[in-house]
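REQUEST FORM: STRUCTURE PREDICTION
Request ID: SP-0412
Submitted by: Lab K.M.
Chain count: 1
Length (residues): 164
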Amino acid sequence: MTTSQHRPLPHPAEEPMTPNRPGMEPWEAAGRTAHWPDGVGTYTLAFHGNKQWSIADEADTAILAMDSIQSGEPLEQKLIWEGLRDIRRLKQRLAAIEEELMLAAREPEADRDKMSFRELGEAIGQHHTTVKERYDRLAVDGRTHPFRGWLTENTPRADLYPTN
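STATUS: Completed
RESULT:
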């Protein structure tokens, strides 16, 4: 499977995507969020391709697991197994995205990098010296997340950094 280049997703303010539920109207809807009379809240995701769908599906499983935990009902083995599996996968994908954003943050823009190590540290909640060490492991040593190839496949970013 490949990732094709495509136009950016529409902004929620410009193109709201409220879900429909049979026999119900939301009591409040804004952008992609809707609140329903039975207490359920929905958030509609928009994406291109199967890679983004994977993240949405895994996040949905995590939300279902969280809801089951908070319901106080006994947790079924199937829910536990699927929850653990999908949360592991989601964490891997998110880690690869976070690392790619770190790499992009240090790329030149006009006369300086897009973000300083201090700004980057504030964004991810780490000290700037730790961020610098982590960045060097990624950009210089090529020790990127194993899912980086999955994330950047067939994109202009795929070959920007060495990968071990």
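NOTES: The two ends are 22 Å apart (CA to CA).
Reviewed by: T.R.
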